Amino acid sequence: MNDTVAGCNAQPFLEGWFTLDAERPQLLGNRCVACGTVYFPKLKSGYCRNPDCDGERFEETPLSRSGALWSYSNAAYQPPEPYAQVDKDAFRPFAIAAVELDKEKMIVLGAVVAGVGVEQLKVGMTMELKLGALADGKLTWMWAPAGAQA
Amino acid sequence: MNDTVAGCNAQPFLEGWFTLDAERPQLLGNRCVACGTVYFPKLKSGYCRNPDCDGERFEETPLSRSGALWSYSNAAYQPPEPYAQVDKDAFRPFAIAAVELDKEKMIVLGAVVAGVGVEQLKVGMTMELKLGALADGKLTWMWAPAGAQA
Amino acid sequence: MSTTRDIAILGAGMHPWGKWGRNFVEYGVVAARAALADAGVPWRDVQFVSGAATIRNGYPGQVAGATFAQALGWQGAQVNTSYAACASGSQALAAARAKILAGECEVALVIGSDTTPKGFLKPQPGDRPDDPDWVRFRIGITNPTYFALYARRRMAMYGDTLADFAAVKVKNAEHGLSNPNARYRKAFKADEVAASPIVADPLRLMDICATSDGAAALIVSSLAYASRIGKANAPRVAAVSTVTPSFASALVEMPDIATDSAIAAPAQSFRAALPRKAYEQAGIGPEDVSVAEVYDLSTALELDWMEDLQLCARGEAAHLLRAGETRIGGRIPVNPSGGLACFGEAVPAQALAQVCELTWQLRGQAGARQVADAKVGITANQGLFGHGSSVIVKR
Amino acid sequence: MSTTRDIAILGAGMHPWGKWGRNFVEYGVVAARAALADAGVPWRDVQFVSGAATIRNGYPGQVAGATFAQALGWQGAQVNTSYAACASGSQALAAARAKILAGECEVALVIGSDTTPKGFLKPQPGDRPDDPDWVRFRIGITNPTYFALYARRRMAMYGDTLADFAAVKVKNAEHGLSNPNARYRKAFKADEVAASPIVADPLRLMDICATSDGAAALIVSSLAYASRIGKANAPRVAAVSTVTPSFASALVEMPDIATDSAIAAPAQSFRAALPRKAYEQAGIGPEDVSVAEVYDLSTALELDWMEDLQLCARGEAAHLLRAGETRIGGRIPVNPSGGLACFGEAVPAQALAQVCELTWQLRGQAGARQVADAKVGITANQGLFGHGSSVIVKR
Ligand SMILES: [Zn+2]
Ligand SMILES: [Zn+2]
To answer: Using an 8 Å Cβ cutoff, are B78 and B91 in contact?
Structure first.
């Protein structure tokens, strides 16, 4: 894994799921115009999932870039495909964060940037969104302790 | 399709489903030792499907070689895979027979040998078992009007 | 039998059949919202979501009940997802009926939706000799083969003709002409059917139904709830039969290459058993039926169903057809919706679409295809591996 | 609530859990025949076959109800096949219960069986960005990640320790030692758990359950039928809860990468809702429970379940564990069968295996793992996509 992405030509692993701003990336959800509920990933069925809302109009909305660490773990073994595979010996465990976004009132999972292990994480600390590369070079969103140098 | 099989090295498309006797082939089923019910294909679960029988022992049994034509149809278009495919222009429609075996009291489906079309078939006529080749050369069982030259 | 065995049909809704190529969830939500609106029932009143699974749309299809409960908005309802091939919709309805009769819930949503691939259905790749579906395709036996064998058998046994089969198509096409939910709305002449290419002798392309995208939903409730919201006169489900075959099953059925052996037990007809159980449950006889929706996977199969439903004696179906008795206006109209001939099959939705049609018929809301004074309707269908169903709706 | 809401459990049967590699139908027939023999009920008396589907065993698995009806011998029973991930067995039981309480049948077979592939479960190949299961694996989030997130959260919120999680494993391994249906029958020491490799911090390999082959079956009936055959005192199913979540669902759940947004509706706990509905149905409270079988997909999850079942206050589960109260002989034994720790998960069979264990406990037939004077048992489990269940059994 490699989080040095500024200025490179890396492509996101999914189009339209997050902005590619190397400094201040944002996840892209959508929001029900009727009730304000935010969806990430974007709701595509066209029908709001709030049982008290019949909303059928949604607009794209970027999500908050930071939130409180709700919990965390790591992948001690290389996950199976479609996770991009590397040579067994080259695999480095990486941390995974569940971050609670205050404004959206939701928890979003993601890998943690390389170089930050579980021993550096603590429930409640502030995390912010970064970009990082998967083993095949495709970009994904990642969480990092706020203020850390990515 | 090709039903000239005597003396060639053709392999069956499934092992153990029928004998390879070019003159007098037979389908191979199995029979519940307790109640006598015959299964084709062979029952492999090990438990008789007669609701009044707890039989768990089965022995291989060859099926009757002939029976009455219960109904028939044909494949006017080439069936999809896993039916062995030939060039679109090379495909010849073939007839299909449902034959009622008197002793086993069951109906068994199969293709009809090449050269015998639906216009030569009549419900009630006696059919007998032959071998024939699929487009990939693998042998299968086929039905033919009794006494016809295969 | 007492009316306590009945449940009310408060709402029916469909997404039009077609080949839209969109996600099945979208169709289902449209159908569900239409059924809720038709019923005048708020979504939060629904205490049980009974989904019919589709097995060709990934995991969301296999958990259809939960998928639609989520798509409409998680609100804590109990959930079930049933799968039974062509009878999936009826199994889902049976689950809802039992839940209501058990006093476990008052209002249920029953829903089925499908997006189907183009072309003939075919099995998964790979050699699988233990899978009868693989074996039959390997030797060239496709789905139409089975329908053709039944059709030819009718011709031999009862003297049915190709013209009879074509007449079923002409009738159903005429019935479906004005049905806004039907995919095919085109009149056919008998010679057009006859001129269509043979697929599986004796059946022509126009004798065999296509596969479609579509969705159907019902809102069903206890009679007490129906009364409470002023719908005491809503049509009722009086029976849902989902019986399995009895060994030895006499008819060779998709995807098998042989029937059961009847050496140790008598051969029995599965199709005939389905409505028999429904009539018994409902305490209603074939003579009471005003209208039938049957699974015309082929034109000839409609005639088999008429006899299995005991709408006439065995072998007499073509006589009724020829006399015009199965057209709208006749003694016992069959497939006033236009049937599978006009819809094409959307597997998990189809059995529910049949009940939607009967609901509209019994309410007198079927417009140009209305069967006059329809009081009792029956459905019938059959799928793979010992699945089938028959539903009776009455008012 | 009156006893008319109950059904009787006449028979329980299992095929031992393991990695046998045979066809799932074989296991299921063994379990079904064992349950029928245990019940003393002839197969022809069974009027409803309620199957829990398996989605990894081809078409026969997707129509499990019909598959077992055929394997045991088609006899005309009504049939249903339910799918609800880990809760499939409970949905099948709920369907049978409703059918019986509705007066639609007297005796039902409920059955689930599975053959599982080796190694971690992983998604189908191909790029599927609309499938949350594909997305989460693409960024490296496997099943153990979710269990680990819940475990770490407990450590942060309630002060649970790795030693607590290891103690759950040690307890369950001890419980399962003599269970003839368990796959793993080996005692563990806490330091062995601690020494096992980390899979998803803070969870070790020994904290996480495997996948297994196995089958479980129940024969259930109306109370009237049970009395008629002299089994009026058979254990009873008093509740089957299969509620869906309520929006907004507060906990991030497999396979999602985010929770619902609670902007427009309050965040709610799904797991806690499952037993709440069961207690309400049964008219029984947590204080009445003598024994619990809960879904210990991980050791830490057993502690979450104890609180969701209200067997103790939120955050107090580890205290009960440390005091030995959840061991056999303690105040409220949890997983006397040995749980998933000793079985490994056989998805469609697992929820039924829980009920089998409670049946034997309530009959006093659990041998070395008997919970003294067990009167009320409860189960809990949760699967993907808003599925979960809780069953209450009493005598
Ligand atoms: Zn909304
Ligand atoms: Zn036998």
So the answer is: yes
pLDDT at B94 over 60: yes
Chains adjacent to B (≥3 CB pairs closer than 8 angstroms): C, D
Query: For D257, which residue in chain A has the nearest alpha carbon?
Result: A109
Strand partners, D219: D11, D109
Note the ligand closest to the C-alpha atom of B56. Answer: 2
Work out the pLDDT band at D122, boundaries 50, 70, 90.
low
Model confidence, pTM: 0.95
DSSP string for D177-213? TT-TT-S------HHHHHHSPEEETTEEGGGB--B-E
User: For the segment D198-243, what is each residue's pLDDT rounded down to a tens digit?
Assistant: 999 999 999 999 999 999 999 999 999 999 999 999 999 999 999 9
Query: Is there a contact between B82 and C134 if contact means CB atoms under 8 Å apart?
Result: yes
Phi, psi of B131, rounded to the nearest 5 degrees: -105, 155
Interface membership of D145 toward A (CB under 8 Å): yes
Q: Residue B95 is which amino acid? A: A
Cα dihedral across residues C334, C336, C340, C342: positive or negative: positive
Nearest CA to CA, how far is A50 from chain C (Å)? 5
Phi then psi for residue C380, to 5 deg, are -155, 140
Report in angstroms the alpha-carbon separations of A22 from A6, A18, A66: 5, 11, 15
Residue D218 CA to residue C224 CA, distance in Å, equals 33
Q: In sequence order, what are the beta bridge partners of C347?
A: none
The Cα–Cα gap between C342 and C179 comes to 9
Extended beta strands in chain C, E state: 7-18, 48-52, 78-82, 107-114, 198-200, 203-204, 213-221, 236-241, 291-294, 376-382, 388-394
Q: What distance lies between CA A54 and its chain's CA centroid?
A: 29
Residue D285 to residues A47, D243, D275, D277, D293: CA-CA distances in angstroms? Answer: 38, 18, 10, 11, 16
**Residue at A57: amino acid letter:** R
Contact D72 B51 (CB under 8 A): yes
pLDDT confidence of residue B37: 98
Q: How far is CA D358 from CA D30, D171, D294, D392, in A?
A: 20, 18, 11, 9
ipTM over 0.85: yes
**Domains observed in chain C:** 1-395 (3.40.47.10)
Helix (H) / strand (E) containing D167: helix D162-176
| Rounded-to-integer distance, Cα C41 and Cα A3, Å | 53
CB contact under 8 A, D73 and B48: yes
| B16 Rama sector, left if φ>0, alpha if ψ -120 to 50, beta otherwise | left
Contact indicator for A139, A132 with CB cutoff of 8 Å? yes
Spatial distance between the Cα atoms of D256 and C225, rounded to a whole number of angstroms: 37
State the CB neighbour count (10 A cutoff) for residue C185.
13
Residue D216 CA to ligand 2 center (angstroms) comes to 24
CB contact under 8 A, D247 and A39: no
Question: Residue B29: CB partners within 8 Å, gap ≥ 6?
Answer: B38, B39, B40, B41, B42, B60, B61, B62, B63, B104
Read off the pLDDT of residues D5-48 as tens digits, 9 standing for 90 and up: 999 999 999 999 999 999 999 999 999 999 999 999 999 999 99
Q: Which ligand is nearest to the CA of C264?
A: 2
